[in-house]
Amino acid sequence: MKVLVVRQGLAERIRERLPEEIEIVTPQVGDDEELVGLAADVDVIVSTRLSPEVALAAGNLKLLQKTGAGVDDMPFDALGPGVLVANTSGANPVPMAEGALALVLALAKRVVQRHMGFRIGRGGSRGVELRGKRVGIIGMGSIGVEVAKRLRAFEMEVLAVRRNPDPELEESLGLEFLGGRGDLERVMRESDFVVVTVPLTPETRGMIGEREIRLMKPTAFIVNVARAAIIQEEPLYRALEEGRIAGAALDVWWKPHWWDPVWNPEGLDASRFPFWELANVICTSHNIGSTDSQSDAGLEIMVENILRVRDGRPLINPVDKMLRY
C-alpha cells in the first residue's frame, strides 16, 4: 500500500504511526507538476487541497483524506466513482468554539482597539455586555453546538439555523430558536452577534450577501470561523467600511492559501479588499482554533482511515460526495 502525504512535516508524523509495510511518499516542492508524478500509483492521498490534475493522475486512488474538516478545496468532479473522501471533522470542535468565543469577546470588549490606544496614550471606548444579547449561529454542526454551549454560559440568547432543524437539539441546548435555511433572514435581523460555522458547499457559498448584511443591526458584529466564501466579500467590506455594522472578526480568507508561495505564486493578498486596515475588524490567519490537542486528534483520524482502507473497513468521517460535507 502506498500513501502520498503532501505536507512533509505531517508525513513524518503519519509514518511514525503506521506499520513499515505501508509506504509513505512526500513531495520536495509540492507543486502540481511534482504531485502528478507522485500520484500515479498511490492508494491514498492525504492533503489540505488538491488540484483536479493530480486527482486525475491518481489512477489507483482509493481514498482522498482531507487534513481538516472543510472539503471545499477538494476536486470532487475529477474523482472516480470508487474514490472515497474523508475529513477530520470532529477533531477540533472545542478548540474552534473557544477560538470563536475569543473573537466574540475581543469584539465586544474592544480588546484590540484598547491595546492600540494604550500604546499611544489613549483610553478606549466602551465595550458591549454580552449578558442578554442575542447571538445567531449559522450552522449547528459540532462546532456550532460547542459555540452555543459556551455563549449560553454568558447568559446570551442563542438563535441558530442548520440544514435540518432538530427540535431535540434545540431543547437540549436551551436555544431561543433553531430554524432552517429559510430562517436565515430572521437570525441576521435579530442577532447582536452572528457567528458563522457552516461548511462551504455549493448551497452555502455566498449565502450571506448584501441583502442579509443590510438586515443586521448597526450595532451588530459578525464572526466567521468557517469559510470566507460563505459571506460575499465586497458587501461585507463596504458595510464595515461605511459603519453599517459595528465590526467583524475574520479567521477565514477568500484567498485561503495566500501565504504559501507554492499555492499562491502570484503573491495575491488574502482578500481583494483591505479588511485588515479597518479599525472595526479583527483579522487572524485561519488558525484561531489551532492547538496541540486538535492537531493530535486530526492525526489519529487520518492514520486510522489509512489502516481502514488497507483492511477494507468503513471510514471515520466519510464525506458525502454529492452534498460535499
Description:
This protein has 325 residues and is of the alpha/beta class. The chain folds into two domains: 108 residues, Rossmann fold; 191 residues, NAD(P)-binding Rossmann-like Domain (Rossmann fold, 3-Layer(aba) Sandwich), CATH 3.40.50.720. The strands form two sheets. It has a seven-stranded parallel β-sheet, sandwiched between helices. A five-stranded parallel β-sheet has the order 2-1-3-4-5. It is globular, with a radius of gyration of 21 Å.
Spans where pLDDT lies below 50 across 5 or more residues: none
Radius of gyration: 21 Å
User: Pairing-aware structural class of the strands and helices?
Assistant: alpha/beta
Q: How would you name the CATH homologous superfamily of the largest domain?
A: NAD(P)-binding Rossmann-like Domain
Please give the order of strands in the largest beta sheet: 8-7-6-9-10-11-12
Classify the fold: give the CATH topology of the largest domain: Rossmann fold
Query: How many E strands?
Result: 12
Topology order in helix (H) and strand (E) letters = EHEHEHEEHHEHEHEHEHEHEEH
Total individual domains: 2
Mean pLDDT: 94
